[in-house]
Amino acid sequence: MRKLKITELNRLTVDEFKKADKLPLAVVLDEVRSLHNIGSVFRTSDAFLVDCIYLCGITATPPHPEMHKTALGAEDTVEWKYKKNTLDAVQELHDQGFTVLAIEQVEGSTLLDQLELDADKKYAIVMGNEVKGVQQEVVNACDGCVEIPQYGTKHSLNVSVTTGIILWEFANKLMRFRQ
User: Fold this and answer.
1) Rounded CA gap, 5 and 3, in Å?
2) Where are the domains of the chain?
């Protein structure tokens, strides 16, 4: 096997990405404090054609050199909006017809491997603060919660790792509807 050169990967240009048909999927960052986590979410969102990222509360906004270290330019490709209050982002998404799901461990959550998506719906996922998770008032405003099954001794994953797992699963399921 030979590793492919970057020129052989046939990736979209920035202009092509901006014109591309995005997945009906948005990401909401609820009080995420780490610039590296925010940058990583931008980069992963670019990889999976996410429509928009909502940066809420203390979540930093581009441009920022520390964010750029992990985003590697994705902060310039993925559309983003800032909302001072995460509840305002959730309400705006609801008003636009999105089903909003918090990624959180709650009573009655849906396990990610059991999640079923509808081809006719738009989805938004809410990712929480590195220490406190998604605020309870935001959980209350969501249409449901999704949880990643875990089998070890730790009860949580890093927010950028969690976002990567969740976005892969959503993109995988949503892309099937396009075939």
Assistant:
1) 7
2) 20-111+118-178
Q: Give ∠ CA 99-27-80 in degrees, rounded to 5.
A: 120
Tally of CB atoms within 10 A around 30: 30
For domain 20-111+118-178, the CATH class is alpha beta
CB 159 within 8 A of CB 128: yes
Q: Give the amino acid at 39.
A: G
Per residue in 119-161, pLDDT tens? 999 999 999 999 999 999 999 999 999 999 999 999 999 999 9
At 31, phi and psi to the nearest 5? 60, 40
DSSP state of 106: -
In eight-state DSSP terms, residue 129 is B
